[in-house]
Amino acid sequence: MFQFKQFSINQDRCAMKVGTDGVLLGAWAPVFHNPFSVLDIGAGTGIIALMLAQRSYAEQIDALEIDEDAYEQAVENFEASPWGDRLFCFHAGLDEFIEEPEDEYDLIVSNPPFYAEDYKTEDEQRDLARFQDAMPFEEIVEAADLLLSENGILAIIIPFKEEEKFIALAKETELYPLKITRVKGTPKSEIKRSLLAFSRKEVFEIEIDELVIEIERHVYTPEYIELTKDFYLKF
């Protein structure tokens, strides 16, 4: 059980546990445009959808999860939260979901699997959650192109080394970066992650910044505390 300020997460049946990437995306994804509808692609425990339920007034928050155990756990976490009536989880893969799209979404978020390297572990469930072949970037971009409302935003967290590739892919479907935050573990470490937000309108001044998580082990930066203070009990 992982306890946040306004909700808790059971994660005993999920291959992908609550981690910094999910918390970062849930806290960072833009909601300034007051989204009515949200889609979380690859929900895992449901943490990002729950964070967005806390942060926004969105009335329809849908999540998509292919793994049966994770799907059941996300449903359980949604139902136990204060926002159960706004949250819904589909047990389906993205390819299946976009075959017959019924809704448009004002915000689409994804913390996709992204170990593109060739090795796999003995834990098939964790591999599925972790490996890019389970959900290629192309599929996410295609889904956003199809499902994003006219003023909608796609927000995603990916390895920094994949940033250029993802921006180029998005541009092919006329989705343009709006905001980029590059994440480092400590001031001296290399950039590890990119938080990217896209819209259908090309902006000529993209907001670009950098976020450092820790000054040293367990000593968090003021910026990270500011971003996550509505969620973590310790902040």
Describe what is shown at a glance.
It catalyses: adenosine(37) in tRNA1(Val) + S-adenosyl-L-methionine = N(6)-methyladenosine(37) in tRNA1(Val) + S-adenosyl-L-homocysteine + H(+). The protein has 235 residues and is of the alpha/beta class. It has eight helices and twelve strands.
Walk me through what this model shows.
- The protein is of the alpha/beta class.
- It is built from eight helices and twelve strands.
- Helix 2 (47-55) links the parallel strand 3 and strand 4.
- The mean pLDDT is 91.
* Main sheet overview: 8 strands, mixed
Percent range for β-strand residues? 25-35%
H/I helix tally: 8
Q: Extract low-pLDDT stretches.
A: none
* Strand numbers in spatial order across the main sheet: 5-4-3-6-7-9-8-10
The portion of residues assigned to helices is: 25-40%
For the termini, the CA-CA separation is 18 Å
Assembly state (oligomeric): single chain
Structural class: alpha/beta
Mean pLDDT: 91
Please compute the radius of gyration using only Cα atoms. 17 Å
- Identify the overall geometry: globular
Order of helices and strands: EEHEHEHEHEHHEHEEEEEH
Number of strands: 12
Organism: Flavobacterium quisquiliarum
Catalytic activity: adenosine(37) in tRNA1(Val) + S-adenosyl-L-methionine = N(6)-methyladenosine(37) in tRNA1(Val) + S-adenosyl-L-homocysteine + H(+)
Subcellular location: Cytoplasm
InterPro entries: DNA_methylase_N6_adenine_CS, SAM-dependent_MTases_sf, Small_mtfrase_dom, tRNA_Adenine-N(6)_MTase, tRNA_adenine-N6_MeTrfase
